[in-house]
Design brief:
Strand order of the largest sheet: 1-2-3
Number of helices: 18
Largest sheet: 3 strands, antiparallel
Bound molecules: s-citryldethia Coenzyme A
Structural class: mainly alpha
Distance between the termini: 62 Å
Length: 429
């Protein structure tokens, strides 16, 4: 196998070194391309462009493979916890029992928010989307922790890691409580991570609240399955914003904003809305599939398709199995779950989807579980963000410590007006 590629242009030659990854991914190193040939590259959506060398998560889109630090997602889903997998993703190795206990304690002891942040929620209208509140509150957290937010100080990064993982569920739950006019419920140090979140979401002062262990188990699995996904839109956003050396809170806030989009993490909310529309259209999946296929109609089936996976998203397979169990236990027969199955079957047997290798992705079934848990639609992307946080932190840490990292500043192909002289306003047509 050659260790370089030759780029010839206008008599100039660039011998581009070929970088080979641990899973035999091959990349052209074009860092000297412009200096050698005057050429830049053009790659909308970066579909062919590697932005980093990373050892965190490996995806094989054709094979439907996902591994966190080399461990298959199926094994972690079966045997690991969200905090254990978060430790693995952030620090690179499975923790010893003592390391995990220490990590869990550090997270538990940082779940409270500064009391002044309570007024922060009052500034938002009841109808505010919780992703807007989450992004704003995460950036605002940096103002309360100026003692430890230097992105180049290892201890500041460690403390910020605990604070973010610990406080995001509290911010999320309080945003929900604010939207329904209920009192904020404080975190409890005697509860596990998912249990604490559910308690803050659904407990009320007037009566005792007991977390359903099956719901907590399902939520832990969902957080774990969302924990990282290499250079997706929001992780790339965290890396790009972080490359300016702004503090971690601000970079993570940018990631939350990117995830909110309906083409990314916001899709789990859109999927359930789409399934409800199909239900209200007497289950007419065929018309929704034909709309999605119509080149003149921008409509797409939410929860289908993926930039990398051209096979089943392994997370969707696991989530579908969980959905079957949890939905059955919590709500019995859910017409939307049945419609989802019919839609999946219709799409997967349709040439349009087969030719484009469009399969259900992580968002297709996850929203149905959140809905069965009693969460409102607009909280679905928030749960995606809580799950994805350890991945964003790991990607940010890898970026900030990579000697190859420079501030992210892509070039462009300029297509605007060429030079022209200013025209005084009275002389304009
Ligand atoms: C996530 O990157 C990650 O890893 C993301 C994620 C993570 O964990 O971080 O996995 C989470 O964001 C999952 C994706 C959630 N989004 C959705 O479910 C929204 C619906 N899907 C799409 O909009 C789309 O599939 C994307 C955004 C996910 C991927 O877009 P790409 O890779 O840019 O693909 P494309 O738009 O170039 O589509 C290729 C073709 C096009 O048709 P043609 O122009 O070839 O005729 O497939 C079609 C598209 O029109 N297509 C769809 C479709 N998705 C793609 N047609 C109908 N319905 C869809 N859902």
């Amino acid at each position: 196998m050659s260790d370089h590629a030759r780029v010839e242009f206008d008599g100039q030659v660039y011998e581009a070194p070929v970088i080979v990854g641990s899973e035999r991914e091959q990349a052209l190193d074009i860092s000297r391309l412009r200096a050698s040939t005057g050429l830049i590259t053009y790659d909308p959506g970066y579909a062919n462009t590697g932005s980093a060398k990373s050892g965190i998560t490996y995806l094989d889109g054709e094979g439907g493979i996902l591994r966190y630090r080399g461990y298959p997602i199926e094994q972690l889903a079966q045997d690991s916890s969200f905090l254990e997998s978060s430790y693995l993703i952030i620090y690179g190795e499975l923790p010893t029992r003592a390391e995990l206990d220490d990590f869990r304690t550090n997270v538990t002891l940082h779940t409270l928010l500064h009391e002044d942040i309570r007024r922060f929620f009052d500034a938002f209208p009841k109808s505010a989307h919780p992703m807007a509140i989450l992004a704003a509150a995460t950036a605002a957290l940096s103002t309360f922790y100026q003692d430890h937010y230097d992105p180049l100080n290892a201890w500041d990064v460690e403390v910020s890691t605990y604070r973010l993982i610990a406080k995001l569920p509290t911010v999320a739950a309080w945003a929900y409580k604010k939207s329904i006019g209920q009192a904020y419920v404080y975190p409890r140090n005697d509860l596990g991570y998912a249990e604490n979140f559910l308690h803050m979401m659904f407990a009320v002062e007037a009566e005792p609240y007991t977390v359903d262990p099956d719901v907590a188990k399902a939520l832990t699995l969902l957080f774990l399955l969302h924990a990282d996904h290499e250079q997706n839109c929001s992780a790339s956003t965290v890396r790009l914003v972080g490359s300016s050396h702004v503090n971690m809170f601000a970079a993570i806030s940018a990631g939350i904003t990117a995830l909110w989009g309906p083409r990314h993490g916001g899709a789990n909310q859109e999927v359930v809305q789409m399934l409800a529309e199909i239900r209200d259209a007497d289950g007419d999946t065929a018309s929704f599939v034909s709309r999605a296929k119509d080149p003149d109609d921008p409509y797409r089936l939410f929860g289908f398709g993926h930039r990398v996976y051209k096979n089943f998203d392994p997370r969707a397979t696991i989530i579908k199995e969980t959905a079957d169990t949890v939905i059955g236990k919590l709500v019995g027969d859910d017409p939307l779950f049945e419609i989802a199955g019919e839609l999946e079957e219709a799409a997967l047997s349709d040439d349009y989807f087969i030719e484009r290798k469009l399969y259900p992705n992580v968002d297709f079934y996850s929203g149905l579980i959140y809905r069965a848990m009693g969460l409102p639609l607009n909280m679905f992307p928030v749960l995606f963000a809580i799950g994805r946080l350890p991945g964003w932190i790991a990607q940010w840490k890898e970026m900030i410590s990579d000697p190859d990292t420079r501030i992210g500043r892509p070039r462009q192909v300029y297509t605007g007006a060429t030079e022209r002289a200013y025209v005084p306003i009275d002389e304009r047509a």
